[in-house]
Every structure is written in C-alpha cells, then in structure tokens.
Amino acid sequence: MHYGLLVNIKGNESESNAKASPNNEDNVWPVAQPHGYPKNPPPPPQEILANRAEYDENLRYRKYWPPEGCSDTPLVCLYRLYEFLVVDDVTGYRNTIEYFCK
Questions:
Q1: How far apart, in Å, are the Cα atoms of 36 and each of 27, 29, 66, 84?
Q2: CB–CB of 3/20 below 8 Å?
Q3: So what's the pLDDT on residue 2?
C-alpha cells in the first residue's frame, strides 16, 4: 500500500512506497495527507469499487466533510453515508450516523 509522504522520528520527510512500521530501520511512520474537500454528488458505485482502496484512503484522510463553500446539510451527510456504505467502512458509517443524529 502506498502511504505517500512519510516522516521519520527526526522530522525528515521522504517519499516511499514501502509500508511503514514502528519497528523498521528508519523509524518511519505514515502521515495523513489532506485530501481537501469532497465532490458532490459522489461517483457511482462501480467507479468507487473499481478503486476501492484508494477511495477508502481518501475518505479516511479527508480534511473537510462538506464541499468547499457549502454548509453541512442533510443531503451532504447522506452522500457521506453512501460513500462509507459503498467502501464498507463500518466505523465511518457509524460515526456519520451519530453526527447526523446530533
């Protein structure tokens, strides 16, 4: 899996395709990259499932929940529920339902 930008304990940045672990020689940990705003409406399920791992990573590290320039409306929340349902992210789905019901 590609983590993108990695930061070692000393704070130096490096690009790597290797999976980082706490016990590796360089003491490198993955750092979440901000993926910005979501695009609404989201793509159809076939497109999401074709790139499920990448889409799931983008969902997990998304910086903002509502799209740029919009407030968080019930429709935007339903789009998020749809995305978490399609990628089968139970934790994200549960958290979105909890946020929606508050």
A1: 28, 21, 10, 17
A2: yes
A3: 40
